[in-house]
Amino acid sequence: MTVVRSFLALPIPEKLRVLVEELIVQGRREFRSPRWVRGEHLHLTLRFFGEIEEKNYSRLAENLKTAFADVPSVEGISLGKVGCFRRKGSISVIWMAVEERGRQVTRLAELAGKAAVEAGLSSERRPFRPHMTLARCNGRREDIVAYDCIREIWSPTPFLPVEKALLLRSELTPTGPIYSIEGEYPLTTRRGGR
């Protein structure tokens, strides 16, 4: 049985991605313990689909194509505060909040969730919290110092538009995940074009 590990994401606007990449480079230079995300992997996940059978994956891709055929572009996202998830008292993930205007991004996540359920996948039980992963931690003291440091130096960005969503396949390898674009869904501009 062939399975596909995939997710739907919004790419981070280039000007914002460059700023975050500079932050990660600084973090990587000063702290070895967190496993920092590679700059080219920065994204906002709308829905993680997990490992699904090839036949369901094909149906999912078709559903997403239909669902995103006439969706307005996101007027703007901003990269806000730095936060963390904790597991058993230790920092497990360092992330950056993604701010949205209205509920534009949340509505895209809801569309992705509906397309997934219609393809036979389970519905997402956790509430959607727009964020971007910066690093995965190892439960070491240095993780806390790194978190405190980048939280201190980061300033929220202005809002910039997002004009497409991407269906990405993820292959896990010993040196980190490899992402490949499986589908690209342009979002309609406010003027009616693409």
UniProtKB/TrEMBL annotation:
The active site is at H43, H131. It catalyses: a 3'-end 2',3'-cyclophospho-ribonucleotide-RNA + H2O = a 3'-end 2'-phospho-ribonucleotide-RNA + H(+). The keyword Cytoplasm does not apply. A motif (HXTX 1) lies at residues 43-46. Its EC number is 3.1.4.58. InterPro entries: Cyclic_Pdiesterase (IPR009097), RNA_CPDase (IPR004175). Pfam families: 2_5_RNA_ligase2. A motif (HXTX 2) lies at residues 131-134. The keyword DNA-binding does not apply. It comes from the Bacteria. Keywords: Hydrolase. Hydrolyzes RNA 2',3'-cyclic phosphodiester to an RNA 2'-phosphomonoester. NCBIfam families: 2_5_ligase. Belongs to the 2H phosphoesterase superfamily. ThpR family. This is RNA 2',3'-cyclic phosphodiesterase.
